[in-house]
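User: For documentation purposes, I need each entry recorded in a consistent format: the amino acid sequence on its own, followed directly by the corresponding structure tokens. There are two entries in this batch. Please keep commentary to a minimum and don't merge the entries.

Assistant: Recorded as requested. Entry 1:
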Amino acid sequence: MSLGGGEKKAEEEKAEKGGELLFCGATCWDIVGRKKPAPDANLVSPTRLRPLVGVDIRFVASGCASCHCVALDAEGRCYTWGRNEKGQLGHGDKIQRDRPTVVSELSKHKIIKAGAGRNHTVVVTEDGLSLSFGWNKHGQLGTGSVKNEWEPSPVRCLVSEVKVAVCGADFTVWLTSIEGASILTAGLPQYGQLGHGTDNEYNTKDSSVRLAYEAQPRPKAISSLAGETIVKVACGSNHTVAVDSNGHVYTWGFGGYGRLGHREQKDEWAPRRVEVFQRNNVLPPDAVVSAGSVNSACTAAGGQLYMWGKIKSTGDDWMYPKPVMDLSGWNIRCMDSGLMHHFVGADNSCISWGHAQHGELGYGPNGQKSSAVPKKVEILDGMHVISVACGFSHSMVVVDRMNVEDRLNQLDVYDGKVLAEESEEPVTKSPILKRNTKSGTNKASENSKKRKKSKDLSESEDEEEDGDEDSDDDSEKANGKAEGKSKTSRGRGKGKGDKKPATEKKGTGRGRGRPPQKNSTQNSQVKAGNRGRPRKS
């Protein structure tokens, strides 16, 4: 369904004006995807965020591999919050932010677009510049160098006349107004997601069989698309979907689960046109394009939504684009996909579906956790959605305030101020451990704590280092990365606990004090979660 001239103009005016940002999903940024968070750390209904109440938000961005968020207001200010282990929030440090915070070093620019990867962020200014911050191991910041592995403050990307920037897990795509170079890419080429016809694979040493992938830190135009003008683009973890000015769709990168739509699971190192969207089924100018971790989607002729890839956690994969009949007849204006969930703004409704574990579908405390079919988010029914964004386990929706101000005032407001302290408390205070530790076991207890801490740090580093291979292949199964990792960590913890009592039984304080240490961490998280729970304004 296409909009008339007057309706289209009204849509653009609403988007320009901005609206209220609502959030649902996981808020325990440091542990989501690694351990099972406390239930109190999830916002299961669309919730307002205290620092953004009344702020006109025009655009939101996250990514299917992202545990951080970006929001842009009507004045061009850029707010970021969430995980910050690689400086991806742009505040000059690695301190986690649980409340949306203005990126002060971008204050002299008016930011109009943004994209978020696993550990990096890229923004676009009104005058066509692009700046980036966060992890740069694979050159995904587009600065032309990988000398600095992480950049905690905004740096210039080597591109100009930029209109849009979007991010995959460890790569970035820019759209520009330069003829013959309308699409440029930089970052990790492991699965061919940069579109330059190679994965830049090499042996780390002459005598070694270990493979590595040469980073591409300088943004490079995709030569096979030099004759086309690319107008829309979306990135999954390791694949890319693009649309040219003629309405043709191209995909390339990791081919698992059929997410490229070519009826096979082969990786594509260069853009390949999707056969379904040709002749009478090319994409209209107002089409919506989206890419999730393991799937892709777009609206074609008549506004019909098509999807392909891994659509459900069970059942067959869709190896080529198929219409989603449940959404036939809806005027879909915006869509985004996360790890295994989807959000759509259509007519005066918000629709979500997919596999979810943290309330990211927004169905509320009494609603179902996951849904195999598209379903209305009832609390938002009748509201006009301006923009949506999905992250690893969270969702953001921007709604027009017109005629729904009273309903918005009834929604919960989340403060989120205690979560930053929460990650520090178990290390610095550990009150229960102190009460149960006797003088004779002080030294041994400290040593075990150090061993545990060093092990956790090494596991965390391994996860980030190996993320390129793990996130898309092994972890993109039915339940995603989070469930697989939480089971592993629980198994290890249990093994430790089982061994300790045999050797520590005689120690009166330590044998009893060890397990409560684990509980104390959980208890402190629960308490912190309770203090930071949404409350009505």
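Entry 2:
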Amino acid sequence: MASVFSACSGSAFLFHSRSFFPFAAKGPLLHLKRPLSANCVASLRTEISVPPAVDTFWQWLKEEGVVSGKTPVKPGVVPEGLGLVALKDISRNEVVLQVPKRLWINPDAVAASEIGKVCSGLKPWLAVALFLIRERSSGDSLWKHYFSILPRETDSTIYWSEEELKELQGTQLLNTTLSVKEYVESEFRRLEEEIILPNKKLFPSPITLDDFFLAFGILRSRAFSRLRNENLVVIPLADLINHSARVTTEDHAYEIKGAAGLFSWDYLFSLRSPLSLKAGDQVYIQYDLNKSNAELALDYGFIEPNADRNAYTLTLQISESDPFFNDKLDIAESSGFGEKAYFDIFHNRPLPPGLLPYLRLVALGGTDAFLLESIFRNSIWGHLELPVSRDNEELICRVVRETCKTALAGYHTTIEEDQKLKEAKLDSRLAIAVGIREGEKKLLQQIDEIFKEKELELDQLEYYQERRLKDLGLCGENGDILGDLGKFF
């Protein structure tokens, strides 16, 4: 039995990174430039002049009827770079800005543009990325003043140099970052061949891979999702709002129908402040309560010091070489899983539902294989919720612990060394790297400790055979087999 499981259970089997799905966002994706602290609502009592480009952007918004003297917020220089600052006291849930749909950058804007026809068959994010690149290079773009205030890059790990990425050695975030970069480059090469080069009249300016990464970063960090009928939309001005861990709700963005000018009506993006603020305070929102620190680092270029944001993904897989592959796959699928299953482990939280049953299923073999027979098909997952046999339970504990040990050996620093580094003032990117690798190592230790405790309990556990005999009345409460049956066990 051990050989069946161990053949498909190395470190690559258990602990590699989750597949990357662009823009499968759980919440609004917004931009954070260069965060120094995202833990509190900052008050900016002293007036700091903004760059001229920001003043020009604000004037454009006035001309478009988006802002006026009554608008309660304005762009300002904040610790993160640019943010929205309250011009007056603001109540909780008060509307702070509204932006009409005609200024949104989304698939509808692409479809209505000159490149709409050639982009019609593309994934929405690819079409919007090409649109961003083309509009950014155009001197007469409607959004030219908006583009002028955008940074060339953030602290997202997709922009890190090779030297900076070395600080992520051993982390799942490094693998994810490299996979994302490879994916983005492959998409660009395909677009270049199929769309850009065959349509030089539509794309007269050269488009580089760096241009494409810039557009990709804008969408990852600045686009909103979860609006009505809108899964990917960049909204100028609204995307200047930054993140704070103090905000614990996500219900701040709405799409409404309202006045968009003196004599026009349009859909409006309406943004509310989730906190009560004083004049001079920065307005914050919560980007996504469910994102891990690794996801925050990849999307926005910051992490939270809160250990609860740390996560480690266990990836389990039923090996195609397993002699019971088809039976196990059928059982997994009937229980809502598949050939691969991903389980996110968080700091100080119980193991996620389904992890232990899936592990036991993958390890099932030998004398326990009878449970894979069709007669058990409707009940087997319930059996897998509890220990199957001592051999099965011992195997999953040993493999998980060995894999944790191997993963921990892949980092180039210890937890103690990372904690020592955090005592100094670190460059923002190094601070992210140190925080991520320390968090991952602590979670690996947490996982190892959980399965170490399970190993110590192996002799006290009740396994399937004993439970079954008890159900049949053939085993006493203390585990003794009754009558002549004891001769056979």
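Summary note for entry 2:
The first helix runs from residue 2 to 6.
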